C-alpha cells in the first residue's frame, strides 16, 4: 500500500489499483506497450449501475410503503457478507438511493461517503472551514445537466466519461502501468469510436438490461462465444475480508485514534466506530475504511517530505 500511495502521489482510493499494478508488472515482463479496454464501459454501457438505473424506474412505480419503508427494512436484515461486491451491499445501496432523482441517484451509487457519514467522519475544524458545503454532487451534476436533450442512458455515459473515466480509470491505469515502465494505449477511446457511439440512441446500446450489447453484436463474428457470454467480472478485490485479515495491522496502525487525531482531518471517534463495526461484521464499511487508510498513508508520507 505505501508503494501504491507513492506512485499515485495523491489520496487515490480505487482499490482496483492493486490488481492493475500486478497485471502491469506481469505484462511488462513480455512487452513494453499494451492495449487496454478502458472506456469500454463508459462508451458501450458496461457498468452494473446502468442496469440499476433501469431497474430504479420500475422500482419507483411501486407503492411508497414498499419503496420507502418495507424493502429498505428488509435489505437491512440481510447478513453482512465479505464478498467483493456482495448481494447485501448492492441491495442496500439500491433501495437507499433508487428513490432519488436520476442524476443524483447515479452519482450516489458510485460515492463512498454520503453527506451524513461525511459530517460524522470529518473533524470539527474541517467542517467549520467547509461552512456546511459537504455536497460533492455538483462535480457530477455539471456534466449531467450539460446534455439535457440526450436519453437518460447517454447522459449517464457522458457524465461517467467526463468524471469517472477521466479522473479515476485512466489515472489508475496510467500510474500503475508507468510504475513498471509499461505504456498502455486505449483503442476504444479513439475519438472516431467515441463520437460514433454518442450519436446512437441509448436503447441501441442497452436493450432491456443487456450490458455492452452493441459491442458484443459488433464482435460476434470475431470473438469466441465463451468470451461474449461470460459474466462481467470487474477488477474488484476482496477489500472487506482483507481489512479484517492481511491488512488489519495496517488499519489498526494508521487509523488508530492517535494517528487520526494527529492528522486533524477526521473525527477519531467516528473512525474507530467504523473500524470496530466492520471488524465485528456489524456493517460493511470496507470502502470507507480503505479511503481513510489511503488518505492517512498519503498524508503522513507527504508530511515527511
Describe this structure in words.
- With 305 residues, the chain is mainly alpha-helical.
- The protein has two domains: 155 residues, HUPs (Rossmann fold, 3-Layer(aba) Sandwich), CATH 3.40.50.620; 65 residues, no CATH class.
- 63% of the residues lie in helices and 2% in strands.
- It contains 20 helices and two strands.
- The protein has a two-stranded parallel sheet with strand order 1-2.
- α7 crosses α10 and α18 runs antiparallel to α19.
- The longest helix is centred in the middle third of the chain and has 27 residues.
- It is globular, with a radius of gyration of 20 Å.
- It starts with a helix and ends with a helix.
For the largest beta-sheet, the strand count, sense and barrel status come to: 2 strands, parallel
* CATH architecture assignment of the largest domain: 3-Layer(aba) Sandwich
Kindly report the CATH topology of the largest domain: Rossmann fold
Total beta-strand segments: 2
Overall pLDDT: 93
Text of the CATH class of the largest domain: Alpha Beta
List the secondary-structure elements in sequence, H or E. Answer: HHEHHHHHHHHHEHHHHHHHHH
Radius of gyration: 20 Å
| Approximate shape | globular
Count, helices = 20
Strand proportion, as a percent range, falls in under 5%
Rounded to the nearest angstrom, the distance between the terminal CA atoms is: 18 Å
Helix content estimate: 55-70%
Amino acid at each position: 500500500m505505501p508503494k501504491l500511495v507513492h506512485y499515485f502521489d495523491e489520496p487515490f482510493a480505487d482499490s482496483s489499483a492493486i490488481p492493475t499494478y500486478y497485471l502491469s508488472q506481469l505484462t511488462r515482463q513480455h512487452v513494453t506497450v499494451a492495449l487496454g479496454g478502458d472506456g469500454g464501459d463508459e462508451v458501450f454501457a458496461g457498468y452494473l449501475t446502468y442496469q440499476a438505473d433501469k431497474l430504479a424506474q420500475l422500482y419507483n412505480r411501486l407503492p411508497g410503503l414498499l419503496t420507502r419503508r418495507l424493502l429498505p427494512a428488509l435489505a437491512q436484515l440481510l447478513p453482512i457478507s465479505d464478498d467483493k461486491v456482495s448481494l447485501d451491499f448492492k441491495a442496500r445501496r439500491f433501495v437507499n438511493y433508487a428513490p432519488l432523482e436520476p442524476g443524483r441517484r447515479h452519482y450516489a451509487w458510485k460515492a463512498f461517503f454520503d453527506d451524513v457519514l461525511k459530517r460524522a467522519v470529518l473533524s470539527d475544524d474541517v467542517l467549520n472551514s467547509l461552512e456546511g458545503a459537504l455536497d460533492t454532487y455538483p462535480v457530477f451534476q455539471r456534466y449531467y445537466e450539460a446534455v439535457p436533450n440526450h436519453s437518460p442512458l447517454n447522459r449517464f455515459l457522458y457524465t461517467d466519461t467526463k468524471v469517472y473515466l477521466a479522473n479515476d480509470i485512466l489515472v489508475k491505469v496510467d500510474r500503475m502501468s508507468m510504475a513498471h515502465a509499461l505504456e498502455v494505449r486505449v483503442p476504444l477511446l479513439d475519438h472516431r469510436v467515441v463520437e460514433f457511439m454518442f450519436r446512437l440512441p441509448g436503447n441501441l446500446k442497452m436493450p432491456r438490461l443487456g450490458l455492452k450489447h452493441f459491442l458484443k453484436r459488433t464482435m460476434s463474428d470475431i470473438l469466441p462465444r465463451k468470451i461474449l457470454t461470460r459474466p462481467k467480472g470487474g477488477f474488484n478485490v476482496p477489500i472487506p475480508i482483507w481489512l479484517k485479515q492481511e491488512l488489519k495491522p495496517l488499519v489498526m496502525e494508521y487509523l488508530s485514534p492517535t494517528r487520526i487525531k494527529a492528522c486533524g482531518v477526521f473525527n477519531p471517534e467516528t473512525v474507530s466506530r467504523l473500524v470496530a463495526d466492520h471488524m465485528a461484521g456489524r456493517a460493511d464499511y470496507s470502502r470507507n475504511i480503505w479511503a481513510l487508510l489511503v488518505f492517512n498513508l498519503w498524508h503522513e508520507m507527504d508530511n515527511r517530505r
